[in-house]
Amino acid sequence: MENRKCYLYLNGRVIGYIDEPLSFVGEVRNTRRKGQISGEVNIAYFERPNEIHVNTDRGRLRKPYIIVEGGRSRFTPELSDKLRRKEINFNYLLRNGVIEYMDAEEEENALVAMDPSGISESTTHLELDPASLFGFTIGTSPFPEHNALARHAMSANFIKQSEGLYATNFNQRFDSRSFILFYPQKPLVSTAPYDATGIMNHPSGQNFVVAISTYYGYNMADAIVMNKGAIDRGLGRSLFYKSYSDEERRYPGGQKDRFRIPPPTAEGYMGEHAYAKLSEDGIIEPEMYINDGEVLIGKVAPPRFLEENIGAGGLEEKTRDDSVVLKAGESGVVDSVVFTETPGATRNIKVRIRSLRIPEKGDKFASRHGQKGVIALVVNQEDMPFSESGIIPDLLLNPHSIPTRLTFGHLMEMLAGKASAVTGSMTDGTAFAEDGSKRIDDYGKMLESNGFDRHGEEFLHDGITGSRFKAKIFTGVVYYNRLYHMASNKLQVRSRGKVQILTHQPTEGKARQGALRFGEMERDALIGHGASLLLKERMLDQSDKTTVLVCRLCGSMGYYDYIKRMAVCPMCNSAPMADVEISYAFKVLLDEIRSLHILPSIKLNE
After folding, report:
1. Other residues' Cβ atoms within 10 Å of the Cβ of residue 2
2. What is the structure's pLDDT at 2?
3. Whole-number pLDDT of residue 309
4. Which one, 52, 118, 446, 481, has least CB within 10 Å?
5. d(CA 368, CA 293)
6. Which residues pair with 46 in a beta bridge?
7. pLDDT band at 496 (very low <50, low <70, confident <90, very high)
8. Domain 6-133 fold
9. Residue 415 to residue 419: CA distance in whole angstroms
10. Bigger pLDDT: 529 or 133?
């Protein structure tokens, strides 16, 4: 192996050959650890292609590791004591070859031990802390090592989607969309990465009292049942901000837009009611309630084409309405209006709309273990189950959602959170802790010393009948995030409305007041039911039904001649024609086939 010539790559480019790759790589690493070359340099040898890769470019992800030599860690107990007494710091360890940073390629040459007990003769490095195996989002979740791998990816996404206090100056910002949780809390069960990053200054969830129980079949599968009393006291309540903006653009020829209430003569005038809430300058005022279809910023613009500019007799300039209208399905209170001016003296206006979001059926919540759920029922406080000490859960979670997902960390957080709540102290849920197995016993002892069951189970009473449930029910405290997927933002309804120009089928998407897609699989369901008239109604009558004239002789499509007042076939001139109801999309298909010089004909039965 040592005698083969080996390519040397620097940042992906070949710069030469090496005769003895292993000794060369070892030499580079030693000089780096002595501080003779930059610590930013990473080197890796790949045996199968026989290549050495040296990376010094910016943007690489690098991670610190403790160096292990001859089966012994360079981070000795003496250094650990000095670090604890703050006689030395992290940079000292870096400069003196105790810790080094490796990138993804150099990690391929390393054998890393999780803790000192796992060091063998072939070990090259040691993890600083086993919890550093996880990234930021999973590091902030408690007991992640007890959950299935797939839940980590989901949990990371839910943490990113959670509402909270994303910035303390949120009322000065004009972000396009933002969500602010009313009463965000620090989690009772925290982790070392959570505390180290200071993320508790921007919390994004609340501590819920959770009972793992069914409720008359309402919380089947992932659905959750919530306590209306807790919601009325502010649990999960949030604000939704949405910003709209516009500017007075300048056009070639000296024309420009103007903020004002458009005159009735303007092209596209929407009627007096649409502009009723604007002040004299054409801008809406703060704290005004506004519904969809109403104008926020009144604006007139010059015509799109210069020759349209002169009106009748050249007396008035033609204008068109270019106002900003609140989008369909939205409503709220005008929170703030800001005027700004660009260096080119162009006026700019931003309007922020505020609306209150109280948890309702269809709103989504998730714990830090990927246990997501949608509210299926909001129950009056007096109808919820209650414990013998009078505690009423905020949320009921279906027991089936735990064993199938393998999220045992969720159960551990419930126990630790309950221990925190009864003792008034924070508990630690950092991953791979040395006293991991001992911790659960400690939580049990904390609960026992305060008069609770050591396993977190309690007898609950049915709020409706008052009778005690036969089985004990596991209750605890879990940190839940409210996610920004809310029913009120997704709600859309349409009886009839806009259609597409090409196919005459209903438009698509909430923004264009579109219909819901009735696809192939939905069609199959109706065919399976034998509901043929419902199928015709959905796919034809409520979609793009059109009537065309078809020639009874040659089967080609004709037209109606309004001068001769008769139906005409272009092939047979004036043959007998029949009215046929077809989908307009099918007519477009026939037209496209004709454009390929193929003549389709429709055969008619009597």
Report:
1. 9
2. 47
3. 54
4. 118
5. 39
6. 51
7. confident
8. Hypothetical Protein Ta0175; Chain: A, domain 2 (3.90.1070)
9. 6
10. 529
Q: Among residues 129, 195, 222, 453, which one is catalytic?
A: 222
Q: Given this model, what pLDDT does residue 124 score?
A: 93
Mean pLDDT of the chain: 90
CA geometry: angle at 483 spanning 292 and 195, to 5°? 135
If we measure between CA atoms, which residue out of 583, 584, 576 comes closest to residue 604? 576
pTM of the model: 0.82
d(CA 258, CA 86): 64
DSSP H or E stretch at residue 539 = none
Q: Are 98 and 74 spatial neighbours (Cβ–Cβ below 8 Å)? A: yes
- 423-443 pLDDT, tens per residue? 999 999 988 887 767 788 899
pLDDT digits (tens, 9 = 90+) for 204-229: 999 999 999 999 999 998 999 999 99
Using CA atoms, how far apart are residues 405 and 151, in angstroms rounded to an integer? 8
pLDDT of residue 575: 78
State in Å, rounded, how far the first CA of the chain is from the last one.
87
CA proximity to 150, closest of 371, 387, 423: 371
Contact 179, 238 (CB under 8 A): yes
Q: Are 442 and 459 in contact (CB under 8 A)?
A: no
Average pLDDT rounded to a whole number, residues 249-265 = 89
Looking at domain 492-541, its CATH class is alpha beta
Return the number of other C-beta atoms located less than 10 Å from residue 47's C-beta: 12
Long-range contacts of 26-33 (CB under 8 A, 24+ apart): 28/54, 32/100, 33/67, 33/97, 33/100
Mean pLDDT along residues 113-121: 88
- Placement of tokens 């926020």 in the chain: 296
pLDDT band at residue 1 under the 50/70/90 scheme:
very low
* Distance from C-alpha of 370 to C-alpha of 409, rounded to nearest angstrom: 10
What is the CATH number assigned to the segment(s) 144-170+179-237+361-482?
Answer: 2.40.270.10
The share of the chain scoring above pLDDT 90, in percent, equals 68
Give yes or no for a contact between 237 and 514, defined as CB atoms under 8 angstroms apart.
no
Region(s) of the chain under CATH 3.90.1070.20: 6-133
> Which DSSP category does 39 fall into?
T
Assess whether 222 carries a catalytic annotation.
yes
Rounded Cα distance between 241 and 294, Å, is 17
Which listed CATH number (2.60.120.10, 2.40.50.150, 2.60.40.150, 3.40.30.10) goes with 239-357?
Answer: 2.40.50.150
